[in-house]
Every structure is written in C-alpha cells, then in structure tokens.
Amino acid sequence: MKANSPIQCFVWKWLLSSYYCRRQNFHMNISQMHERLRLELLRRIQRGTLSVSLLSRQSGFGQAHLSNFLHTRRQLSLDGMDRILKAQHLTGADLLPAQDRAGDDPEGDTVPIVSHATALFEPLVRPAAVHAMLHVPANLLQSTRARVHTAQRAWQRFVAVRIAAADAAAMDPLVLPDAIAVIDRHYNSLMPYRANRPNVYAVRHEAHLLLRYVEDMRGQLVLRPHNLACPVCLIDVDPGGSASDLVTGRVVLIVNEA
Fold this sequence. Notes:
There is one protein chain. By secondary structure, this protein is of the alpha+beta class. It folds into 2 domains: 6-95, 434 Repressor (Amino-terminal Domain); 108-255, Umud Fragment, subunit A (Ribbon), CATH 2.10.109. The chain is built from 8 helices and 9 strands. Strands 3-4-9-5-6-7-8 form a 7-stranded antiparallel β-sheet. The protein is globular. The model is unreliable at 12-26 and 99-107 (pLDDT under 50).
C-alpha cells in the first residue's frame, strides 16, 4: 500500500489520535469501513450516477471482480479500497457516520440534519451531507423501538430534515413551516408504535419526501394529511414490492420553531 494512500493516511490518524477518536466517538473498524464503501457504491449505482462498467474503467478492476464485491461474494484488500476511493473522489473520513464535530454532549444526543434526498436515498450519511446537528433529549433515541424492513437494516438509523412551508401545510398544526422532523429509518413497518395512535411517517413520493399518516390498501399506499383541508394522496406499490419500500421511516420528534 502506498504511503500516501487515503486509507493508510486515515488509518494512521485514527490509530495515533485516540483523544480525537474519543471526542468524535469513532466506533468503526476496517471491516465496517469496507461495508460502508460497498453501500456507498450501491447507493450511487441506484441513483444512476455510477455503473459497474464505469467504476471498472475508473479503478482498473474487472466488472466481475466489482460485481462480486458489491454482492458480498468477495472482499477488497486495503489497496483495492484505496483504488476505489481515489476513483470516486472519496476519503476515509467520508465513510464515517455523521457525528457532532463539536464533541460529546453530556445533556443529550445529536442527529444530523440533512437534505430530503439524503434522508430518502443515502443509507450512510457522509460528513459532507450534514447541514447541522440537532440536539435531542437524552435517551430519546436509545429508548426508541425499531421495526425495520430488511433492506434498510444496515442504514444509518436517525436523520433529521427541515420541512418547508409548502410541505408542512398538509400536517398543520402538527408540523409548522421550517419545523425539523427526526426520522427513525429503522421503523418503516405500518404497525402502530403505540396503540390507538397513528404513526407519522416520512414517505417517498417520486423524488419527494412527504410527512403523512399512512395506510396500505390493496396495493396502494394511502397518505392522509393531518389538515383535513388538504387532499389524500394515493401511491401505487410496485408489483412484487411492498409498502415498506416507500416508507423512509417513522417520525419520532417534531421540533417547531417559535
């Protein structure tokens, strides 16, 4: 491995700076970095910004080799990871989960505030995708129960998004303009979280994120607003798919700015 490779430089900084690691709360080994790289490449392929053939040309790996890696049939060496990172203009730090760069928060937890596209499509939140960090009450996240569809089990669990006035209208007055919604992406089941209380979900409708109450009705997802003056929205579930494929997660907290 070359001395100036992104992986080697990142690993040496990681190993030598234990204080920095504690402040940033890094809990990731090389195997986890390997998996995060695989998921990030799959995300780019699913978004249409990358293909196996293009990655093959960029990195020099054969398409069969890359396909086996992407489908977990083989692993990359550190040199191989380094070649992929360089080809995709990534650094080792881009594979880290988003953390509060200001340090530990003894009074509570933090959640990255991201774009709607990141919340909908990115399994792992890269540091560059974080707009800010939201402080939430202590133990709120740890005490939240999960009920996740298998496809999202490896996704970073909690993200937050800001809701513009046009998107907030359907959930008024529960959600006000410029509110921040914290989403649990490990709860995309339509089972009620609490008895006799409907869940509010973040749902993917085309390329947009909507907050709604949700029902599954004969192959269609019914999106119901809180504001009865707004229309109900129907989304067709793809044949062979499930309603959970369209549900990004359950809203666990809404922060309305005064």
